Amino acid sequence: MLEKLKEEVFQANLELPRQGLIKYTWGNVSAIDRESNLFVIKPSGVDYQVMRAQDMVVCDLDGNVVEGELNPSSDMPTHAVLYKNFLTIGGIVHTHSTWATIWAQAGLDVPAMGTTHADTFYGAVPCTRFLKQEEIDRGYEEETGKLIVATFEERGLKPLEVPGVLLHGHAPFTWGKDADSAVMNAVVLEEVAKMNLFTRQLNSFAEELPQAILDKHYLRKHGENAYYGQK
Amino acid sequence: MLEKLKEEVFQANLELPRQGLIKYTWGNVSAIDRESNLFVIKPSGVDYQVMRAQDMVVCDLDGNVVEGELNPSSDMPTHAVLYKNFLTIGGIVHTHSTWATIWAQAGLDVPAMGTTHADTFYGAVPCTRFLKQEEIDRGYEEETGKLIVATFEERGLKPLEVPGVLLHGHAPFTWGKDADSAVMNAVVLEEVAKMNLFTRQLNSFAEELPQAILDKHYLRKHGENAYYGQK
Amino acid sequence: MLEKLKEEVFQANLELPRQGLIKYTWGNVSAIDRESNLFVIKPSGVDYQVMRAQDMVVCDLDGNVVEGELNPSSDMPTHAVLYKNFLTIGGIVHTHSTWATIWAQAGLDVPAMGTTHADTFYGAVPCTRFLKQEEIDRGYEEETGKLIVATFEERGLKPLEVPGVLLHGHAPFTWGKDADSAVMNAVVLEEVAKMNLFTRQLNSFAEELPQAILDKHYLRKHGENAYYGQK
Amino acid sequence: MLEKLKEEVFQANLELPRQGLIKYTWGNVSAIDRESNLFVIKPSGVDYQVMRAQDMVVCDLDGNVVEGELNPSSDMPTHAVLYKNFLTIGGIVHTHSTWATIWAQAGLDVPAMGTTHADTFYGAVPCTRFLKQEEIDRGYEEETGKLIVATFEERGLKPLEVPGVLLHGHAPFTWGKDADSAVMNAVVLEEVAKMNLFTRQLNSFAEELPQAILDKHYLRKHGENAYYGQK
Asked: Which residue of B213, B218, B221, B225 to mutate against A (max A Cβ within 10 Å)?
């Protein structure tokens, strides 16, 4: 069942430690098959040295396990909510990568301060509020997904234009058209989180990137007339 | 004698440089056999390239060498005191890992500022006071152990709920149910020490993690109804 | 066509990730043949794992592709302007390396604070102003090159004495007599950007390097009577 | 001539990039044979990939080349002055390692803030003043050595008790009983330079290590009754 997608998700999970985004098993990647509305996700707490593609778990959009002998990542219900509400996305990544997590702990949006940011994120990466006691009691992981969706709605953000978010006190989620691009967006978020923190320290009056340059860099890669890369 | 435990302790010591926690021989791991009340510890100052499992030294809870031709780690008496007083622990790690040592030198507890912390430590990791001249004269390494035990008693902390401590002006000790989990706790402490320092720098008003989220993350992994990982 | 130069440019591009200057394909190196006034540059957005020497693209000084089936780096017109105006240079590198980019985002020149800087850069590395809307509309990449040239003219700097620049809100460009030295200058700029940021944090009164030491270090390597290295 | 010492010096030089202390050829290690009063040092600016043990250059204490076809490191006269004046040392290392160089650029002594420091350095690592124009004119490298010697005399420091120094605006020199221990001392200095910078940032009121703990840690490794390591 979904063997090709399992292989993609498996490989994308292995990419997390290679990119320095996680230690041990602290992270998870999933990807969805929009035909069947089923998604594939890493099992919970399995050592990356012994994990195999066939250990990936298949789930539906209500957060039920459809196939797989292992428990899915405990964050699986968050993924389900995101796939259900963000219809343009195909892959999701969750890590506790150092610098993005620092911004999440600080409870601050990551502002667009340079073209490294603008090449991937069309504006600031938002930070949510803390989850509340009643949300935690109702279902922590599912409510985490709902809070992300609500944050994007309130701010009028399109998920593929700003493919990531920080959970206050927790860590980042990123997404993309597939598992691989979700991982790449996690790498970019981590890098700009580091650069922007030290930019602020070096010059507390540093300005955000002017809108004209933000537009140029985002649109030359992602706009209708994009001319970056090969055809 | 205790060959299996020697192998575990040997492997756990090799994990320290792999995880970037130590340079040269600046660290030590031990593990205890609660049946015989004997523990196995790394020899002092032996190059990791030539060290073998059979070089591990066996000691009793009064800090006597029971078996082994090499001197045990000079911190051995600290380990003995911890095993004697913290009856739930099975392994101990001492490193001078960069970021945890920075907090130790600053003389500050590492507060719980995010879920990365809460997944492992149920609250702040305490920092002791400096050792005094008379304690150093009486026996530096043994008194180090006693100071850790006294710190946990004064604060009403359970060793397995907060599996680590900082010695003011010195460095961290961590522990766990066995040598491997003590190493993993050292990795987590190092990571949260780094993240929390920069969280404070990024936002000096950053709040500690709300109790409800601290409870949720700690208990979903370590509580009675834990559901993280596989059964 | 220019096969030897293609190989040099190809190898210099591979050096960027090895030196930790780039992630993914975020960077580009070129080199010029001053006989034919043609330069060779990396193709745009091609994975470094599959890229080959023959994939390098040949361009002229007006920014036309002369040979090659792939699109050149989108920054190619910047390279063309630099080669056209800086007649002493033979290679150019563009990266978004972390610490140099932090200074670019902060909009600050990197001052000469130590001999590591003076061994390569004969004074501060300048940071340009932001590009303006009308420049972006006229041709972003070409205008980037013109802004660099104008900045060097205004400040009376010689390109080989100060072989690098920061674009405000963007990232560094470095250059040199050939592709390899342009890469080495990118490595030095990244390192001094890191060191100078923390020097300022450690001691906000830290002085710039005295002129006498700046002269000594720059000239013992690059002056008429240089005596560093082998003959 | 001095083949064994050449091999030791060669291997110690290779250790510098392995320990992350240098990039390219920015560093040098030497060691002395006190019988003949000749020392062996790395040649200047030779790529570490092609350098061989027999390329090491033999010099005397007046800074003359006694054997070798390549130019010695341009810092050779500094080494000569140190060997001539610090009669207890057997090896010298010079690097521009990041964090030690940051303190050198800041013009500040590295204070003893923890036991990592105290295990190797018996007190603060001093930072010299800047060299003056007339000293540079007289002979930059030789005067660098004289300034180090004068700094140790003024402060009443013993070279083997405080086996390192920072040159203001430049970088560290470390030394030891042989080439290997000089490299190890360079590693320790780099690590404590990093830790102490961030300790100050985390807690600007952080105290230096109490004298009793400094004594204990230094002397248990280096004192008459040292008990660290194996006999």
From this structure: B213
From chain D residues 74-113, the ones with a CB under 8 A of any chain B CB are: 113
The complex's ipTM works out to 0.95
How distant is the Cα of D59 from the closest Cα of chain B, in angstroms? 31
- The C-alpha of A113 sits at a distance from chain C's nearest C-alpha, in angstroms, of 6
List chains adjacent to chain C, taking adjacency as at least 3 C-beta pairs closer than 8 Å: A, D
Per-residue pLDDT tens digits for B86-126: 999 999 999 999 999 999 999 999 999 999 999 999 999 99
Give the minimum alpha-carbon distance from A224 to chain B in angstroms, rounded to a whole number. 37
Q: What is the pLDDT of residues A103-139, one digit of tens each?
A: 999 999 999 999 999 999 999 999 999 999 999 999 9
Give domain A3-105+126-188's CATH number out of 3.40.50.11220, 1.10.10.10, 3.20.20.100, 3.40.225.10. Answer: 3.40.225.10
Are C210 and D169 in contact (CB < 8 Å)? yes
Q: Where are the domains of chain A?
A: 3-105+126-188
SS3 state at C72: strand
Contact across the interface for C45 and A229, Cβ inside 8 Å: yes
**Residue-level pLDDT at D231:** 67
- Out of 3.40.50.2000, 3.30.420.40, 1.20.1090.10, 3.40.225.10, the CATH code matching C3-222 is 3.40.225.10
Cross-chain CB nearest to D136 (options C198, C212, C231):
C212
The Cα D125–Cα D24 span in angstroms is: 26
